[in-house]
Amino acid sequence: MAIDMTALHSALDQLCDPEIPVVSLREMGILRDVKVLSNSVEVVITPTYSGCPAMEQIHDDILLTLKQLGVTGHVTTQLAPAWTTDWMTSSAREKLKAYGIAPPQCQSPDTSQVMHFIRRVPAELIECPRCGSSNTTITSAFGSTACKALCKCLSCQEPFDYFKPY
Amino acid sequence: MLAPQLPLVLHLADNALVLGQRNAEWCGHAPVLEEDIALANHSLDLIGQARLLYQHAAQLMGEGHTEDSLAYLRDAPAFRNFTLLELPHHGPLAANSESDRDFATTLVRNFLYSAWALGMWTRLTQGNDPQLAAIAAKAIKETRYHWQHASDWVVRLGDGTSESQRRAQAAVNHLMPYTQEFWAPLAHEQAALHIGVSLQETQFLSEWNLLIAAVLEQANLTRPSDGGFLSSGNHGIHSEHMTYLLSEMQSLARAHPHAVW
Description:
Largest sheet of chain A: 4 strands, mixed
Number of domains of chain A: 2
CATH class of chain B: Mainly Alpha
Strand content of chain B: under 5%
Mean pLDDT of chain A: 87
Strand order of the largest sheet of chain A: 6-9-8-7
Order of helices and strands of chain A: HEEHEEHEHEEEE
Oligomer: heterodimer
Structural class of chain A: alpha/beta
Shape of chain A: elongated
Number of helices of chain B: 9
Largest sheet of chain B: none
Number of strands of chain B: 0
Distance between the termini of chain A: 41 Å
Number of strands of chain A: 9
Low-confidence stretches of chain B: none
Strand content of chain A: 15-25%
Structural class of chain B: mainly alpha
Shape of chain B: globular
Helix content of chain B: 55-70%
């Protein structure tokens, strides 16, 4: 039986990151490839952080989707090239912001440049996802999940999550 | 024949797991909630790195080894982590992790080690073991945050109150001698050469010295002489603290050897 790839892609596009349920796996850059083998498919995913606890859930969600469509297939995890927040689409960034998470503000820090958590430098100004003010501060380097820092807006006083550049 | 890079992969895995276990001991005990979360997240990264490295090692070894058998069913002499990483969170504290923990000791250790790890992961991304290079490319992104977190805290503590300065300096004095193990002899230089990675000591050490010196200076901390006793965890000869750490970490897996969840 031929695999209906259009249906498969649209079903996979519905799957969200379990920890950020407004952004799809594809928009996050976690879903890397869908390969058609002779009688089955191989779905390739890549982890965000090495210890991301959502990967098993993502793996299971994909298998369930395949099963529901009656497609035989398996999921493989690929590490290289390493996931980066640069792969997040602009629509994903908008959705994050609407959800209350400030999207990464700079390119992946693949040079020696990384954000400072205590001594702020102007280039790292983070906009509050609620009121848009740049008058914000980082409360904690590490937040509710591995990929986020905890911030506070000094204008509207609301705390918010910041998706760290990776 | 065993893969020549295996000792290096296990060494890196053991480093990540043991430090991950130590930092996780702060979970529920850190001085402020934000640092509780930060250290737990730091551990999550390290344990994630350890899993990827153990999976790779198990594949190189074959013969039924798994990430779990390597992490949970080996005894202390089989572990090849640096002694620095297994020490409790307080200089004079013996063996178990239950009594007073010193936040400065934890952060100074993360500071000294993550500076080394930055250099190591950078080199390994260039190696010709593709799986190890892929792990390194992820680990380096995480290590940059660990380094930044630790070095920011070293400055904050060293350049803070007289009490935080005293504790930070005591931690530097206590831990610095253990960093000799990073370089003498340089861990797994031969194993790395087999996968096309040069760990040439002078270059690596001078990069590390530069990173450390700049932060210590900002933090008003003095670098002690680091001569004397040379620790040997990297050769499987550990401090008295290691078996306590493992017995806590491995107890569940050993009591229920076939448990899955």
